[in-house]
Amino acid sequence: MTKYTLPNLSYDYNALEPHISKQLLTIHHQKHHQAYVNGANTAFDKLTQARQDKTEIDIKAALKNLSWNLGGHVLHSMFWSNLIPTDKTKGKPDAKLLDMIERDFTSFERFKNEFTQCAMTVEGSGWAALTYDKMIDKLLIMQIEKHNTNIYPALTILIVLDCFEHAYYLDYKNEKAKFFEAFWQIVNWEEVNKRLEEVAK
Predict the structure, then answer these.
(1) Whole-angstrom Cα distance, residue 100 to residue 40?
(2) CA max distance for the chain
(3) What is the CATH number that goes with domain 22-85?
């Protein structure tokens, strides 16, 4: 049976320094993300086994567990791909996405500020995300609690920022605002543009 697997990073563990240290990135990827992969596989296996054995199972608990772990796996996979080595960063997106950001948020700086405030105010642990709603041709910021709460159904995620403590504490301690500021230095705008182009076809 096909299993969920931990994706390889497209860059070295030290490639995001000084914004994210080699130690933090290694632990975040190999330990925390791997735990969500393992959890998703275990949750799926339990559901599959119960169906094969025709035994009763607490569906609500099982699906909640799967949602938590699968959400963590999917969002982390996106997070890695929307980061870029420090020496390759552009600072701003290319034309189409930048035009849309300026149209929907009035300016790039206003967008960054709103997105950062979204990250700062997540209740508990969660994510900040930029999404695209094809129905109304608008960019929307989404605040995800945990990995699976407050999600706008069916909207395409263009950028995600991990707001869990494990994403920054080793480097930034309790000063998470500094981590969110550093994030803007390593956004892979080419990848974000590609996601937008794919959904906007």
Answers:
(1) 35
(2) 57
(3) 1.10.287.990
Are 156 and 134 spatial neighbours (Cβ–Cβ below 8 Å)? yes
Rounded distance, CA 182 to CA 20, Å?
8
Q: Is the pTM here over 0.85, yes or no?
A: yes
Measured in degrees and rounded to the nearest 5, phi and psi for residue 82 equal -100, 20
pLDDT tens-digit series, residues 147-160: 999 999 989 999 99
For residues 175 and 25, is the Cβ–Cβ distance under 8 A? Answer: no
Q: Give the pLDDT score at 94.
A: 83
The domain limits of the chain are 22-85, 87-199
Whether residue 197 is predicted with pLDDT greater than 80 in this model: the reply is yes
Fold of 87-199: minor pseudopilin epsh fold (3.55.40)
| Pair 199, 135: CB distance under 8 Å | no
The owner of tokens 């094969």 is 52
20: DSSP letter: S
| pLDDT score, position 102 | 97
Q: What share of the chain is helix, strand, coil (3-state, %, to 5)?
A: 55, 15, 35
Please report which helix (H) or strand (E) contains residue 160, including its range. strand 156-162
Judged by DSSP in three states, 126 sits in: strand
- Alpha-carbon span 134 to 193, nearest angstrom: 15
